[in-house]
Amino acid sequence: MTKPKRHYKTTKLENIRNRNEGRVLAAMEKVLPEFKTACYCDICVADIYAATLNSLPAHYVQHGGITLRSAPERNEDVENAVRDSIRIVQEQPNHT
Fold first, then answer.
1. Which candidate in 3, 36, 51, 94 could, as Cys together with 85 as Cys, close a disulfide (CB 3.0–4.6 Å)?
2. pTM greater than 0.85 (yes/no)
């Protein structure tokens, strides 16, 4: 699988990230052990991560650029979004 193009004309865009990515990973590490019987195969974990990110407002930033400050979600809100995503993925797994 080839990597998607991450530039526009001569402007490289690979340093732009969603600030919630790290917060979701931290919340997953805290919350996943609460769900002892859930499936944690690679597909389900990736689906939980993606579903959680999609449920939160995006906060994109670029390294070395301006950052528009907005009120970030509380950690509790991020953790609850992970819990919701775990339930959704377990009810509708993306594998057999």
1. 51
2. no
